[in-house]
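Same chain as my last thread, 85 residues:
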Amino acid sequence: MNALDGNAMAGRLQAAFGIDVSGMDGACGVCGATGAVGAQRAWLVAPGAVLRCRACDAVLLVVVEVRGSFRVSFDHLAWLEAVDA
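reply #2:
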């Protein structure tokens, strides 16, 4: 399966957080690379969605929908920051 652009997770992330986080910057806790959530690599496979670092392929976060609610694991996402528009 081929990776998608991180923006493919925008709908799930917005459902989980109530805001669009795809334009927010974040940092990989493994290699230190920074960039927008939407610029990372995503896999949308059941039962969840995985966002990986574009630089080192570390798992940044996982979103799973369970019985109508969302569970988010921030595996190696060191930080997430809203960027001024």
